[in-house]
Amino acid sequence: MNTIIKRTNVRYSILVFLFLATVFNYADRATLSVVAPIMSKELGFDPEALGLAFSVFGISYVALQIPGGWLLDKYGSRLVYGCALIGWSIVTMFQGTIYLYASPLIVLVVLRLLMGAIEAPAFPANSRLSVQWFPNKERGFVTAVYQAAQYISLGIITPLMTIILHNLSWHYVFYYIGAIGVVLGIFWLVKVRDPLAHKSINQQEIDYIRDGGGEPSLGSKKGPAKISLAQIKSVCINRMMIGVYIGQFCVTSITWFFLTWFPTYLYQAKGMSILKVGFIASIPAIAGFIGGLLGGVVSDWLLTRGYSLTTARKFPVICGMLLSCVIVLANYTDSEVVVVAAMSVAFFAKGFGNLGWCVLSDTSPKEVLGIAGGVFNMCGNLASIVTPLVIGVILANTHSFDYAILYVGSMGLIGLFSYLFIVGSLERITLTPTAA
User: Taking a C-beta distance cutoff of 8 angstroms, is the pair 320, 291 a contact?
Assistant: First the structure.
């Protein structure tokens, strides 16, 4: 009598780790913005000094994307991500000690630069692990889950940090959030493994991942002896990938409006009180969380219903990009309800269409997933530098948010155009052996 062996579901424990690591990735980034009003008064930082401290993170983060991807391809996601998580968390803790130094601003800038550099491999590692551990039909949901971590960080962890700030001091925000990250990083290194090296997974789950288009053997066997610059270039300048890069820049531009200028917009342009701003600003984050999960579910559902990979992935992206343009309605009303609704719909749409990492996982050559993810994340996160600066220039010259909102809304149209006319059909790129 043949006994049917039930398939294990170890991959979902990996998804939990991906989610938690991404939550604290964003939480560590947000620590400075939470403590800035109190810390700046105590240490005498002016707005220009704080602006410098905010921006240097993005500079080093973008600059180290490709080297971070190379590390992932060489040493694997488990080791690089776990060590990075511990590393950036320790740097976060040290930010609570800058008052001990003669030049606290210089120390803070150095630490923020270091944190941005160490965090660089995080999202490429998320993408790489999703390819190792999940079949194609589950990858949209997986991507949506770890992408949704940013909204959880904004909606839950940030209020917790304000409680710490209120009851203790700004130093302890860095200490506690950093310490939690260190503990999580240690658990990561102990518990996370590549599929073929994990003791709890059975052959049925490995076969399920492999048969569904995943790559469970990625990192467990050697690929080509060398990956040439010509091969890497062929991926970076591929028309499909260029379209995906443009789309990710547009999506990230919308994100960074909400991460930087949105509270100021509500306070200055719409005349809301600071207390109301704190409440209202969380509503789009909740909408973004719902949209992010729903986009991944819809994409995977389309795939299981027999639609092509191109249709299943591009349909939510195109719908999300188009719907995000409703943000411009905020320019034509004085109603707080309409403004909040427009912003919430836009952030929901941004979340719904935020499947760029999933597309990257589906299309990049498995031999260079880390580097491909680094290039992709570098292009997307140029928006973390460009968007705050562009909006700042617009405000300085017009003293109005109207054109700033139009700029953010235009990102949806540009992303829509890119996915419709540049990306084309989605298929995994194969490295040509002649370039090796």
Answer: yes
